[in-house]
Amino acid sequence: MSRYEIAFSGQLVPGAQPELVKANMAKLFQADAQRIAQLFSGRRIVIKNNLDAAGAEKYRATLERAGARVEVVDMDMPIEEVELAPPPPLETAGAPVAPAAAPRPGRLQVAPRDEYMAAFSEVDAPDFGIAPVGADLQDAKPDAQAPRVDLSQFSLAPVGSDMGQAKAEAAAPPPDTSHLKLQE
User: What value does the mean pLDDT take over residues 49-75?
Assistant: First the structure.
């Protein structure tokens, strides 16, 4: 039993007025203007899926009466199988072998472990070694220089002079409590 999906991509039935179709779709789906604008964005939007043939035809007819042209797609469509190209023929013992490129100093030579890695055997990559344990891996940075600040506008006060700090106010005299007595 085939299953179908209904997809809409903003196309209208010939002769239909866009505003009338949008109003019909809004009434049909009970959707607000923002959802209807998404339907008419031009992108392919699946409205309903997993329908049988009768249900798909009912949806198509209803939407066509509303003025929208929809696409009914069979979901059980067979998947196209792709055949891979055969691997290249192996070299025979009697065939002349091209001399291997001489290894360049400081460059990595990759020995392929399988067919996949054989594709990378001609890659020219730098040979990064492994640093010994405890080695500093970050490049040395030059020492930072002190900024040049012009201090000529400032002067020093003599030792012991008042630097203009705020002086603390003298404490207020304590309140007179001589008239207070404790009752027995």
Answer: 90
